[in-house]
Each structure stands twice: as structure tokens, then as C-alpha cells.
Amino acid sequence: MTLNHVLVRKLTSRCELVGASMGETDRPLFQEATLSKANISIIRFDWSGITLATGSYLRAAYSPLFQKRGPAVILSSDMATSVAEDFEIVLENQGLFALLAKPDPRRRHYEISVLGNLDPVYLETLAIIRDRPNVTAGELFSEDTTNIGKTAWMNRLSRLYEMGLLCKEKTGKEFRYSYPQTEALANG
Fold first, then answer.
1. Cα 88 to Cα 114: distance, rounded to the nearest angstrom
2. Residue 62's CATH number
3. Tally of domains in the chain
């Protein structure tokens, strides 16, 4: 898993991000940062140093990244609580979702959660694979006690990858899916 670490403060050259017009001006900066670079599987937008980002700014500049997903997982990290709350409202109003990584102050670790509207079936699937390094649909099928078929697991994992919430790697005839690893975030 490779990580592209983008500091939002450096990207925008500001610590206060206010209003739709500023957001529309900055949108190309965020879009440029997500353009596929070879072998990048996670793009981490680090919001540390941003003291204010309004909902109208987030709606104009940042939430469009979550409407059309690329091959990389997009993570938002180190958001101030008020910024994360506004971002969640924007996502819910637009019917979108995103991954948020919050640092755990007790250890060098990030807790990753989903903000916005995500179907409970997909939330359940993410919870099942969250603490594994990677997994295949066949492995989930063989361990499952809820009678979910292998094809259903394949569909769920594939859809979560398409949504930009999982990383995927082909090994032999199967795909191995993984949740963004928190150690990579802490060190990236």
C-alpha cells in the first residue's frame, strides 16, 4: 500500500477556508492532488493546521472528490472537530460518504471511521475486515456463519473498492482487499 500525503494547509496556503467562492477557487487544487500517480493506493488529505473550514467551502472544494471515485482511497485526517462535523453534514446532505482518520492520542495509531451515508450492509462488511491485513471473498465465505454466499462477498468487496473505501490487489486468480492500515497513516 502506497500513500500520498497532502497537507491541506500547504495546498491552499491558508489556515481558514471560508465560503463557496473560495472553495470553487480551491477545487482544482484538490482535484489535481487526486490525479492518479503510479502505484498510489491511498491519498491522505491532512487537515492539521486548518483552524476553520465552513460547510460551504467543503461543499464547493472538497466534497466533489467523493462524487466520482478514482482508483485510490481518499482519507481525510486530523480534522478539527468542528470541521469534521461540518464535513459530515455536507456529506449527509449530498448522499455521500468518506473515510475520516482521527489520531488516537494514547498511541501512534489512527482510528478510521465512515462519515456520511453508507448502507449498513457495507458498514458491516467494513467492520468484519477492518482489523485484518487483507482478505479475499473466499476467505470470508469459508469463515462466515450467516450464510452469505461467496458471490455476495465478492460483490460487497468489489463495490466497496469501487466506492473508494478499500484497496485491492490481484494475487493469483483472486483479489485481496484491504482496509487502509492505520500504521501507514501514522508514519506517512
1. 9
2. 1.10.10.10
3. 1
